[in-house]
Amino acid sequence: MSVPLAAPLAGSVDVDRRMSPRLVLSRVVALCIVEIQKLSHDRSELITRAVQPALWLVIFGTTFTKLHVIPTGGVPYLDFLAPGVLAQSVLFVSIFYGIQIIWERDAGVLAKLMVTPTPRAALVTGKAFAAGVRGLAQAVVVYAIAELLGVRFTVNPLRLLGVVVVVLLGAAFFCCLSVTIAGLVLSRDRMMGIGQAIMMPLFFASNALYPVELMPGWLQVINHFNPLSYQVEALRGLLIGTPARLPLDFGVLILATVVGIAAASGLLARLAR
Amino acid sequence: MTSPAVEVRDLHYKFGETTAVDGVDLTVAPGEIFGLLGPNGAGKTTTIRAITALLPVPAGVIEVFGLDVAKRRMAVRRLIGYVPQQLSADGSLSGVENVSLFARLFDVPRGQRKAKVSESLEMMGLTEAAGRLAKTYSGGMIRRLELAQALVSSPQLLILDEPTIGLDPIARGSVWERIAAVRAETGMTVLLTTHYMEEAEQSCDRVGLMHRGLLGKLGTPRELIDELGRPEATLEDVFRAYSGGSLDEEQKGLRDVRATRRTAGRLG
Question: Where is the ABC transporter domain (chain B) (predicted)?
Answer without folding.
Answer: 6-237
